[in-house]
């Protein structure tokens, strides 16, 4: 989908948008700010749409089977309650669309591409309404009814904000007041969801990939790292062999989770990298391949709560491992692929596997 026509004229138009991404160009929710060997900027519209649908499948379905995977870590009041683990939907399409709309010729990628100016572009509000819609869809897909909450933590539900109402009176609204759409008296139009049927296929047959990876295990030039502990600077693709915990008996209702931890970005700059499992051929690396687990995306700048903090990101990988026929393996190979020329400012402390009930 391109930027809607209504946002291209009158008061809803913003001159500080990337001129390459104006209609009829379809949005690229796997966007990187500059071309590289793995960038999708040269894809046709049909190819870009296919990549969009596949990425949404990863970030809405297979990679986000649990609330913490979709919404991110639990944030509580105070310094001790801070956390820096974003959910799948925060990275993409949230951050990627911000960067895709913002003008990379501006010093801070204004307007949409930077935190301080994003809301100056009216399309900001349509973008965030769509993210709210995706939240509604995620709840429906995972069987939540209107009375259920993803988290029952009162510190979250009773957090409150002050607003002026239509009569200019100051009112207090709690989080629990704003997560019931019936009380807010709005609903989203029901439309087709083609991304539900966009489950990717492996780019290489799993039996072939398994043989190639085993043959390469002792070749330092092809598999760069043999430990899952960094830190690493992502100046180039980092490949890490990650053990699957033998002592853990995975229950059927548990999700196997890939954790990329201790992510730091120099001077709070923009950064992006993709995460792949058992990737053999990097020329075929894209969200359209089943090997894609998800992506990390950080917009330029930071608020005071997250400035200087190391970040983590988690992806559900149970379905991916089944499709790659790797669910019985003792270890997997994880590739961190830097995007948009940002690897030299990005460091990662380690990669591990957890299980989430």
Automatic annotation (TrEMBL):
Transmembrane segments: none annotated. Residues 121-132 form the Tyrosinase copper-binding domain. PROSITE patterns: TYROSINASE_2. Its cofactor is Cu(2+). It comes from the Eukaryota. GO terms for molecular function: catechol oxidase activity; metal ion binding. Keywords: Copper, Disulfide bond, Metal-binding, Oxidoreductase, Thioether bond. Belongs to the tyrosinase family. This is Polyphenol oxidase, chloroplastic. The lineage of its organism: Eukaryota, Viridiplantae, Streptophyta, Embryophyta, Tracheophyta.
């Amino acid at each position: 989908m391109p930027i809607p026509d209504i946002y291209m004229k009158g008061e809803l138009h913003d001159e500080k948008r990337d001129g390459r991404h104006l209609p009829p160009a379809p949005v690229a929710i796997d966007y990187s700010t500059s071309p590289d060997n793995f960038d999708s900027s040269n894809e046709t519209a049909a190819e870009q749409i296919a990549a969009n649908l596949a990425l949404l499948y990863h970030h809405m379905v297979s990679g986000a089977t649990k609330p913490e995977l979709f919404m991110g870590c639990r944030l509580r009041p105070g310094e001790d309650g801070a956390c820096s683990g974003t959910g799948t939907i925060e990275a993409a399409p949230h951050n990627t669309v911000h960067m895709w709309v913002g003008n990379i010729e501006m010093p801070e990628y204004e307007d949409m591409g930077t935190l301080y100016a994003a809301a100056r572009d009216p399309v900001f509000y349509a973008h965030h309404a769509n993210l709210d819609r995706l939240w509604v869809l995620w709840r429906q897909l995972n069987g939540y009814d209107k009375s259920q909450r993803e988290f029952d933590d009162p510190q979250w539900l009773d957090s409150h904000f002050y607003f002026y109402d239509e009569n200019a009176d100051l009112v207090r609204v709690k989080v629990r007041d704003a997560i019931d759409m019936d009380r807010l008296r709005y609903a989203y139009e029901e439309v087709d969801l083609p991304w539900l049927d966009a489950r990717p296929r492996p780019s290489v047959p799993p039996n072939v990939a398994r043989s190639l990876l085993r043959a390469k295990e002792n070749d330092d030039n092809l598999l760069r790292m043999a430990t899952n502990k960094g830190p690493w600077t992502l100046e180039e693709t980092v490949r890490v062999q990650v053990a699957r915990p033998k002592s853990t008996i995975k229950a059927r209702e548990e999700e196997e989770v890939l954790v990329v931890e201790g992510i730091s970005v120099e001077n709070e700059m923009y950064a992006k990298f993709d995460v792949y499992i058992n990737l053999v051929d990097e020329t075929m690396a894209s969200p359209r391949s089943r090997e894609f687990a998800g992506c990390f995306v950080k917009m330029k700048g930071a608020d005071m709560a997250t400035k200087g903090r190391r970040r983590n990101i988690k992806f559900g990988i149970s379905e991916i491992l089944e499709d790659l026929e790797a669910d019985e393996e003792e270890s997997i190979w994880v590739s961190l692929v830097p995007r948009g020329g940002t690897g030299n400012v990005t460091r990662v402390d380690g990669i591990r596997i957890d299980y989430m009930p």
